[in-house]
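Hi support team,

I'm opening this ticket because the web form for multi-chain structure prediction keeps timing out on my end. I have pasted the exact lines I submitted so you can reproduce it. The total is 364 residues across four entries, so I didn't expect it to be a heavy job. Is there a limit I'm missing, or should I split the entries? Thanks in advance, R.K.
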Amino acid sequence: MVRILDLEAAVLGLLYEEPQYGYQLEKTIEGWGMRNWTQIGFSSIYYVLKKLEKKELVESKMEKVKGKPSRKVFTITELGRQTMKEKITDLLSWNKKLISPFDLGLAYLNYLEPPEVIECLENYVESANGRIKFLESSVKMQEELGAPYYVVALFSRPLANLKTEIEWVKEFIEKIKEEENI
Amino acid sequence: MVRILDLEAAVLGLLYEEPQYGYQLEKTIEGWGMRNWTQIGFSSIYYVLKKLEKKELVESKMEKVKGKPSRKVFTITELGRQTMKEKITDLLSWNKKLISPFDLGLAYLNYLEPPEVIECLENYVESANGRIKFLESSVKMQEELGAPYYVVALFSRPLANLKTEIEWVKEFIEKIKEEENI
DNA sequence: CTATAATATTATATGGTTAGAATATTAGAC
DNA sequence: GTCTAATATTCTAACCATATAATATTATAG
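Hello R.K., no limit was hit. The queue was backed up. Here is the completed structure from your submission:
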């Protein structure tokens, strides 16, 4: 379960476009494929909304639509918009060091036998190749649909990174074989 | 503050080599430069040790060394070793999708004006170049010290990835300028 | 001989996050 | 009419992680 790093920013960003209520956010996240990057569940959505409201980044009011249970609609405030812009500026301006689960595995790889390591890494390459196929078709699809460049970017960036990643792992496998005379 | 994803695996891995007590682990983490990837504090170390013991992945016994306050030494169990090997196997075998803070920024970049975005991204490139310098000198240093290949890997992998990252961002800046006629 | 720095652990409080149950309204099938 | 599914929120308990304070031992500088 890989977590998004800033749930508040993620939810506030969704409210930047239009007011939404909790249940709707859940559906937006689900439908928009955001579940792909975060496991945020509905209880967390309501929890985050409460925090955002306390900070006055959003406001809520009850709304009644015929034929539906009444619901609490959250609207981003001016302070919320300003805060969100600052957050985006920060997120886009700094390269923050990140360690991945794979890095953790690498750090302790010497506790496995070299042939075991190679087997793992070959599985890794295979699994990464699967994701590459997915990303490539996503980029193509988005481009054909005429999606804006920043939407295409959501797929093209991980694609570029993953390709480098695979090349590195392949070279690393060769290095191990060399070092261990396999 | 970017977190390591599996504190238990990180600590269990340290105990794989030799039994250690809490305070010693703190020093190991500090000295080994692990603080570079995780902010784990000493209170968390004891917390994690307690959890590991409950799961019977480690055992503890008090030890008295002359001239020192007595301490609780944790030793990895056979179950612990097996579990750690399985964890490493898992970590090295799958490409897990990860979203970085930068991805979150990209997802919401359209709420900033294009010139603002470009300014951010130029800062990003600069900040990433700084890290590249550090990683390059780390790789060189480790190689000169005759460090094993899997230690060098801890620096050479992020280095390769970061170079791709920078290239992608530079191209992305050009794309924005083109699209927005800046 | 006493103050303090280093060594070492434990306890308590707090905050972040999630799981799961409880509650309530309405639409639509039968 | 009544059962079920979909819509919608709230509450409680639990868990994960960290900060901070409290406690205790020993070395050593003055």
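A quick check on our side: Chain A has two domains: 6-93, 101-180. Let us know if the file doesn't open in your viewer.
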